[in-house]
Amino acid sequence: MPDNGYIAVLVLVAAAITWLLRALPFAGLAPMRHSVLVKYLGLHMPLGVMVMLVIYTLRPGAVAGGLDLLWLVIAVVVTAGLHWWRGHALLSILVGTAVYVALMSVW
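RE: above sequence
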């Protein structure tokens, strides 16, 4: 069984590495906070990520065609309309998903 000094050194090394790995991104971002590129990405990336997620989610249904495409369009319209009306993302996602699952399971 290892002695207490050896275990203490292991714990200190693990703690130091953990602390450095958590602090390193903040230290690297500090000089770039006022960068034009970082501001541009911060402004445009959320929209780009959402567009990619929508395309990734809707592509299989659009490729399938037929009734699957119709149910997908109905669910997207319900989701978008509810979000536009209420402005509550969680509610619109849950209701849109429920509409899609109900339409897929009934027909």
